[in-house]
Amino acid sequence: MGFVLHSAWRATAPYRVRIGLALKGVTYDYAAVDLLKGEQREPAYRAVNPQGLTPALDIGGGRVLTQSLAILEWLEEAYPEPAILPVDALDRAAVRAMAGIIACDVHPLNNTRVGRQLNKMGIDQAGILAWTQLWITEGFDALEPMVARHSRGFAFGDTPTLADCCLVPQVYSANRYQVDLAPWPAIRAAVGHAARHPAIAAAHPHNQPDAKPA
Amino acid sequence: MGFVLHSAWRATAPYRVRIGLALKGVTYDYAAVDLLKGEQREPAYRAVNPQGLTPALDIGGGRVLTQSLAILEWLEEAYPEPAILPVDALDRAAVRAMAGIIACDVHPLNNTRVGRQLNKMGIDQAGILAWTQLWITEGFDALEPMVARHSRGFAFGDTPTLADCCLVPQVYSANRYQVDLAPWPAIRAAVGHAARHPAIAAAHPHNQPDAKPA
Prior knowledge:
The structure is a homodimer. By secondary structure, chain A is α+β, with helices and mostly antiparallel strands. Chain A has two domains: 3-81, Glutaredoxin; 89-199, Up-down Bundle (Glutathione S-transferase Yfyf (Class Pi), Chain A, domain 2). In chain A, 54% of the residues lie in helices and 9% in strands. The first copy, chain A, has helices at 12-24, 43-46, 68-78, 89-105, 107-110, 112-120, 125-150, 162-176, 185-195, 198-202; strands spanning 3-7, 28-32, 56-60, 63-66. In chain A, strands 2-1-3-4 form a four-stranded mixed β-sheet, covered by helices on one side. The N and C termini of chain A lie far apart (35 Å).
């Protein structure tokens, strides 16, 4: 039985998992969740992931994995080659810290449900955009010296890691929210390099079945 | 050379790492960061962790680990016994998903810098409190069925895991922000059980050198 990835084309958390699956060469069926229509909060999707967030990876037999970092760590354990974590424990900690800055300190502040809540609290669209840009800026300020120190092409070293799985989607989001990447040349270079990797390119939002025209 | 943990007594992310260190029996010196005074944003602390967030674990030789989940994963690799992740890969994914719900979807929305930003945007203290309570509620609603399914004393199984490292501090935070835990009996039971574990008790905010009287 094949895997099914519950995904939304532009959302960064499922984009991370698409990169991981593509890097590992793991095939799957794509189940689109329309976040703008609120499908993630409807009973049909809650039956898959009660939390109502994407992604969810159904691996068959009633087993559904949630939380993008947990899914990527599971992928690394279930499909060790090619590795997306370095061998050395301190290097692994550095890659996980880079992933954590994005997955914990940037993205959760900017996802759909948070924008909706800010709107309910009376913050206008310009205020929500400034909020989104602020957390991306703080996160990239933290990441830039780490990428500058560790990159040898990719975000860490010369092969794709968990850090690229998180950074590539976050830069896509930064572009979407009109953040000028000029202050972060190491991030720009690493993501430019990563974008040319066939697996990472295949995971791009515009290559998904639910992508909308620009 | 000993380890130094840069910590703040009430902050939940360093609290997670204190639990992990105590469970592993790893000793360390405690370096207090006064978040109310803004010491985390001052040059002395930025020299330790440029991101200006706690925790940071200095393991000597100029090596400083950041991001609580990355530190806990490193601890698990460097000090495998007692394990804080199960053996089975799917069980590990479940524990990491539980940790991720707290570390990605609850806490980052509620930390000091976010409250400060909401205040700047004109949200009053009552509004910030309601915001904090909302994300705790959504997170605990997601966690409750997972704990109910997997707990055999602790949040997952019958020994402490990464899930307890995250859940115990988040329940402490929920109490601090006046969230009534009645809707989540499985979480309440697991945290009540965990609180009696000597290592977890030792990591409690009130047992830290920088704790303030109630």
